[in-house]
Write a structure and sequence with these properties.
Distance between the termini: 6 Å
Number of strands: 16
Radius of gyration: 17 Å
CATH topology: TIM Barrel
Order of helices and strands: EEEEHEHHEHEHHEEEHEHEHEHEEHE
Structural class: alpha/beta
CATH superfamily: Aldolase class I
Largest sheet: 8 strands, parallel, barrel
Strand order of the largest sheet: 2-5-6-7-8-11-12-13
CATH class: Alpha Beta
Number of helices: 11
């Protein structure tokens, strides 16, 4: 037997298209999200994360009908984030097949929603998304609305508050590392992982399996999420939906013998 940390492709949605950003900007159109989901089905992916990067910025609600067209094609557990502002929207997302909802902006604007959602669905279904940017002299701040609005709240305070409110997981995004394929911010991941008693999913910066290994073993993350690594291939970043084999993950120590 071996331990099997979760490795989660994170797909960004924009105007019903699949895109990839760099540092939360410059969204590059990649194609149809449904095609990507079908390929990940074939690859045997354990879990898939979908984030609508326009919803919170534009103040639009989750596009339930379009999201339903995605969930009907997916054979793995799905989580969704983007534009969630009410318990009714959360109930609709669960109804069409999502197992988890990801809440970022509402964590600041309406923190009571986390408590209501966890009471309704259980904390294991509620993920608090923390987007962090390191700025002058290494000072770290949280951002909401897909990185467009700065909130002067320390990330460690934010994750502790999310846990107190009832979130069952933290999705930790490093804005500085997003799309750069320069490795995770291990120090940030370690700080956050050591601050809470709930699982932390690290996201932002993964290039290859070695990065997954580092963030799980050195950063203390419970799971590793990535975007570019699973949608690009090679130095020229050709668009190719991909996922490492189980044997590759074992050989690189991501899945380890117990």
């Amino acid at each position: 037997m071996y331990s099997r940390p979760r490795i989660i492709p994170c797909l960004l949605l924009q105007d019903q298209g699949l895109v990839k950003t760099i540092k939360f900007t410059d969204a590059n159109y990649l194609g149809d999200p449904i095609n990507a989901v079908k390929i990940f089905n074939e690859k045997g992916v354990d879990e898939l994360c979908l984030l609508d990067i326009n919803a919170s910025k534009k103040g639009t609600a989750p596009d339930i009908e379009y999201l339903k067209s995605i969930t009907t094609e997916a054979f793995m557990p799905l989580s969704y984030g983007g534009g969630i502002t009410s318990l009714e929207e959360i109930k609709k997302l669960f109804h069409i097949g999502f197992e988890k909802v990801i809440i970022n902006t509402a964590l600041v604007k309406n923190p009571q929603l986390i408590k209501e959602a966890s009471t309704f669905a259980g904390s294991q279904s509620i993920v608090a998304s923390i987007d962090v940017k390191s700025e002058f002299m290494g000072k770290q701040y949280c951002y909401i609305k897909c990185g467009t609005e700065k909130v002067k709240i320390d990330p460690i305070f934010m994750v502790k508050e999310a846990e107190r409110l009832g979130a069952g997981e933290i999705l930790l995004n490093s804005i500085n590392r997003d799309g750069t394929m320069q490795g995770y911010d291990i120090n940030l991941v370690k700080q956050i992982s050591q601050s809470v008693n709930i699982p932390v999913i690290a996201c932002g910066g993964a290039k290859d399996i070695t990065d997954l290994h580092h963030v799980l073993n050195d950063g203390g993350a419970h799971a590793a999420a990535a975007g570019s690594m699973f949608v690009y291939f090679g130095r020229k970043k050709a668009v190719l939906i991909n996922f490492p084999s189980e044997m590759d993950l074992i050989n690189e120590g991501v899945y380890s013998n117990e």
